[in-house]
Design brief:
five-stranded antiparallel sheet, Glyco_hydro_65_C, Gal_mutarotase_sf_dom, 26% strand, binds beta-D-glucopyranose, Beta-galactosidase, Chain A, domain 5, globular, 767 residues, alpha+beta, 33% helix
């Protein structure tokens, strides 16, 4: 664990340059706007270790699968969001020597991610080999107002000499992915053009024909005055740039303003890309850097109004929660229903930028509460649009009907290629069904069920119907050969969570059918026809629900994670020599699989999702049994435990778990932040605060809150949107105040007592 970042309520601050931390910082200081994202790579040349990353949302490459032993049913490719044109590049030469932080002495280095206003800045003094000193200051952002625009102000001041500064602003499409399966480059050049102060480059992917055009414009100012300079034009394969020199006296500041438009064929016709990029670029240039930056600040201010969490009395916690919210808002804006949330967002290559069950199980609640319901609806529609592919996927695996959603996907097709996950970690199908329930329960948008929801639910239920088998001797259904959420056990029989979520899906599907028959009879008939749904199918679902086998330990009165769980050696994590942890870095996979240790919530994931159906004692007995065997080696684990611990009144445990998730990347807790931030688990951190410490639940259309102030905090407040109203919940040791910031009245239950808060009104209760 490395703690080198400074504490601050609104910013992430790195002081002093340590190349060993650079790749971690490149992840942490990433900027994005839902449509593109950029790691905190340096603008100028850097010959030290770095993971270059400029990502365009939805622009991916189907990289041919690489496995040792092919198994029938494996996908042909793994989709990865590509490292795309390096649009930030500005090389700097001082009297012929390149500025490179790996080759000069760096003083007073400060890197700041300003989360309040949405930009990244950097300043430092470089002492070149010949003793020349330069002050460098840069500011860059990708606009959340103009989704295709990124801009940089890069200033150089000679501190102890007068001489020639040469700048090379460029666009470079000759980039690669570090995770390329066959070490190939994925881009081909289509078009390039460079003029004085301008450049445009179009590259396309070798497969799927995604085109990306970047267009740049720059201007140079000395002491605030614009200069007219002749530039040398540089063009080579997949590269355009200008090389331009400026004479600067000691103390004179030379600033280069670089504006870039990045447009893709996802949003523009192939023939119109260059024109579109130029148009977008021109309007940004006309607005000017300062205006762009100030509209960015205003837009971020609006976002914070919807989603900020304020924590008093603990700066580390305050910084962490804002960092998590900031990264989530940078990753997904919800305006494009073809996009989704990769586990690393736009901060690295790991997980390929593809979609996992993380979205439905962990991210959806954040967007439900902090954005208009159309945003979370779009996350659901993404899966609706993939339904046909999910049906094909089920067919490919030998099922005669139904849908199996992929473990990992970009366009609906499965990308994952480990049999124990691809074929067996099928609980993901349940999370997709659960998200429909979660969305409808939270928003009250029952119309969604008839429009899209039922079709997905019915096809998932059809899958479960075939995946279980009936055992006549037991007169029960079982489910064999699965991997539950705990990936530290594979190919187990009767994973309680999977059996439970399967039956829950069938129950909910039957409820929804019933609801539609009663409330939307015409649509019901239409859908039954479209789905060709037979009575024998629904009867079968009911039979499975009635006769499903669930493993239990009657002695402890707990649900069993799987049939063989109690045959394991039951040594708790606290009794394990800490030198073995993390297990995934110290033990063979074989040893992990045979052990009792649990990677992430499994039975407890079920008790969390289906919280209404289990009483506190049941939750307590299962929590007390499973948590001590849990190593939380998935970043998605601590949040579920934190929320359950809150409900059980285990406040210390809740806080301990919360700490493990909230500063995961800022403190590089898992030693892997250089690969990218754990973006989807950030939504889990948000849930730990709002669903955990805030006790938020929605039951029968009413928002329930049951908050307490944890740990070292003196108070905290959070905002949630609920059915048109926006509520600010402020919790101190003494009282809870819920303020309605909109004109729409809200019905809530506070610590078990119902209140209606009128528009702009509030309710206050003593604790
Ligand atoms: C977890 C999965 C998760 C994936 C991506 C894995 O380590 O076990 O549950 O979907 O990471 O975040």
């Amino acid at each position: 664990m490395k703690q080198y970042l400074k504490l601050d309520e609104w910013s992430i601050i790195e002081e002093g340059f340590d190349p060993h931390n650079h790749e971690i910082s490149e992840s942490v200081f990433s900027i994005g706007n839902g449509f593109m994202g950029q790691r905190a790579n340096f603008e100028e040349q850097y010959s030290g270790s770095s993971l270059q990353g400029s990502y365009m949302a939805g622009v991916y490459y189907p990289d041919k699968t690489r496995v040792g032993w092919w198994k029938n049913g494996y996908p042909e490719y793994f989709a990865k969001v590509l490292n795309s044109t390096n649009w930030i590049g500005i090389d700097v030469d001082v009297n012929g020597t390149s500025l490179d932080l790996a080759k000069c002495t760096v003083k007073d280095f400060v890197r700041v991610l300003n989360m309040k206003e949405g930009y990244l800045s950097r300043s430092f003094t470089a002492v070149m080999e010949d003793g020349k000193e330069l002050k460098i200051e840069s500011v860059r952002f990708v606009s959340i107002v103009r989704h295709e625009i990124g801009s940089i102000r890069y200033s150089v001041t000679p501190l102890n000499f007068s001489g020639e500064l040469t700048f090379t602003p460029y666009l470079d499409g000759d980039v690669k992915n570090k995770d390329s399966n066959y070490d190939e480059k994925f881009w081909l050049e289509v078009f390039k053009e460079a003029g004085q102060g301008t450049g445009a480059l179009t590259i396309k992917t070798k497969k799927l024909d995604f085109h990306v055009t970047s267009a740049m414009f720059y201007e140079i100012l000395k002491n605030g005055e614009k200069l007219n300079l002749d530039a040398e034009i540089i063009e080579r394969e997949k590269f355009v740039g200008n090389r331009v020199s400026v004479q600067a006296n000691e103390g004179e500041e030379v600033s280069l303003y670089k504006y870039v438009a990045n447009v893709t064929s996802r949003n523009h016709g192939l023939g119109q890309l260059v024109e579109a990029a130029r148009e977008v670029l021109n309007t940004a240039v006309q607005a000017g850097f300062n205006a762009l930056l100030s509209e960015q600040a205003t837009a971020w201010c609006d976002k914070w109004k919807e989603s900020d969490i304020v924590i008093e009395g603990d700066v580390a916690a305050q910084q962490a929660i804002r960092f998590n919210i900031f990264q989530l808002n940078q990753t997904y804006s919800g305006e494009d229903d073809r996009l989704n949330i990769g586990p690393k967002g736009f901060t690295g290559e790991k997980y390929g930028g593809s979609t996992y069950w993380d979205t439905e199980a962990y991210c959806l609640p954040f967007y439900l509460s902090t954005a208009d319901s159309s945003i979370s609806r779009n996350l659901l529609i993404y899966r609706y649009k993939h339904l046909e592919k999910a049906k094909e996927n089920a067919k490919k695996l030998g099922f005669t009907k139904g849908a199996l959603y992929p473990m990992v996907t970009m366009n609906g097709e499965e990308c994952h290629n480990e049999w124990e996950i691809t074929f067996e970690e099928i609980h993901r199908n349940g999370a997709i069904a659960y998200a429909i329930y979660n969305y409808v329960n939270y928003t009250g948008d029952f119309a969604y069920l008839g429009q899209y929801g039922l079709e997905v639910l019915a096809e998932i239920s059809r899958f479960w119907e075939q995946r279980v088998n009936y055992v006549p001797a037991k007169d029960q259904y079982v489910m064999l050969g699965v991997t539950g959420p705990n990936e530290y056990e594979n190919n187990v029989n009767n994973n309680w969570y999977t059996n439970r979520i399967a039956c829950w899906t069938m129950e909910y599907t039957l409820d929804v059918l019933n609801y539609l028959e009663q409330n939307e009879p015409e649509r019901y008939t239409e859908l039954v026809g479209k789905l060709n749904l037979q009575e024998e199918e629904t009867t079968k679902w009911q039979d499975i629900i009635n006769k499903m086998y669930y493993p239990v330990d009657t002695e402890r009165d707990i649900f069993l994670q799987q049939d063989g769980f109690l045959d394991k050696e039951l040594v708790q994590v606290k009794d394990l020599d800490p030198k073995h942890l993390p297990l995934n870095q110290n033990w063979s996979w074989d040893r992990i699989l045979r052990s009792v240790y649990i990677k992430q919530a499994d039975v407890l994931q079920g008790l969390f999702f289906l919280g209404d159906r289990y009483d506190l004692d049941t939750k307590k007995r299962n929590f007390d049994f499973y948590e001590p065997f849990t190593v939380h080696e998935s970043s998605l684990s601590p949040c579920v435990h934190s929320i359950l611990a809150c409900e059980l009144g285990y406040q210390e445990k809740a806080y301990e778990m919360y700490l493990r998730t909230s500063r995961l990347d800022l403190d590089n807790y898992n030693n892997d932040t250089e690969d990218g931030c754990h973006t989807t688990s950030m939504a889990g951190t948000w849930m730990s605060v709002v669903h955990g410490f805030g006790g938020l639940r929605v039951k029968d259309g009413v928002l329930h809150l049951n908050p307490f102030v944890p740990g070292h905090w003196t108070s905290f407040s959070f905002k949630v949107m609920f059915r048109g109203s926006r509520l600010k919940v402020n919790v101190t040791d003494k009282e809870i105040i819920v303020l309605n910031e909109t004109d729409i009245p809200a019905a809530i239950s506070l610590n078990g007592k119902e209140h209606t808060i009128s528009g702009m009104g509030d309710v206050k209760v003593a604790r």
